[in-house]
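Reopening this ticket.

The earlier resolution said the output was attached, but the attachment link was broken on my side. Pasting everything inline this time so it's all in one place.
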Amino acid sequence: MVDAYFCTPAVPNRVEINGSKDTVVIDGMMGQGTGGTLKVIGTGQVIESSHRNMYQGEITAFANAIITGGTPPVTGEDGLHSQQLVEAVYESATTGRLVRF
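Inline output:
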C-alpha cells in the first residue's frame, strides 16, 4: 500500500518495507517535519535523521549543484531508475508475475 498524503494528522508518519531478508521501519521521516528514525528490524540497526526538513535539504542540494556546477545527490538517472522500478511493480501487480529489471 502506498499513501502519499501528508495532511492527515491521525495517521502515523510511518513507512514499512518488508523484504525477503529483513524489514525496515521508517518513523517520522516522511513529510515536512524534522527528526525520525530508520530501523532495520533483523539487525536492530537504528539510524537517526539529520533533523532537517527534507524538502529544504532537497532544494538546497539542487541549488548548490547548479551554483557550483556539481552533481546533485539525486541525478536524472536516479529518477529514471525509480520510475522503472515503479513500472515493474505495477506490471508485477497486474500480471501476478515476478518482474526483473
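Reporter confirms the inline version is readable. The helical segments are 54-68, 76-95. Residues 75 and 87 are 19 Å apart (CA to CA).
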